[in-house]
Structures are given as C-alpha cells and as structure tokens.
Write a structure and sequence with these properties.
0% strand; 4 helices; globular
Length: 60
C-alpha cells in the first residue's frame, strides 16, 4: 500500500483514523519515520483536506 493510499483510507474512514491515532493500527510497507510523520500530521489540527495536498492555510 502506497502512502498516498494510506492517507486516502484514513481520510475516508474515521474509525480507521481513530484506531491509527490510538496506535491500534499499523501499515505494512512504510518505514517507522513515515509512520511517525503520518501520525504527527493526522493528529494535528490542520484541516484534513489540506493535509492531502500538503498545504495548510493555518501557516502564516
């Protein structure tokens, strides 16, 4: 599973997102660094639609 696919899955499925943020779900095929970065971004206050495109309107 590509990182892009993982992000899409998390954005579409709130239960999966919550399980991931609680540390109950791990994804095969991504490094520990990628997993930590994904956790940091998905757990942040940045709007989900901005996470996917890598842009945040909150940054000024």
């Amino acid at each position: 599973m590509m990182l892009n696919d993982i992000i899409q899955s998390l954005l579409k499925d709130r239960d999966l997102m919550e399980s991931f943020l609680q540390g109950k779900v791990q994804f095969a095929g991504i490094s520990e660094t990628e997993s930590k970065a994904l956790f940091d971004v998905m757990g942040s206050n940045i709007a989900a639609e901005n996470v996917y495109y890598g842009v945040s309107n909150n940054w000024r």
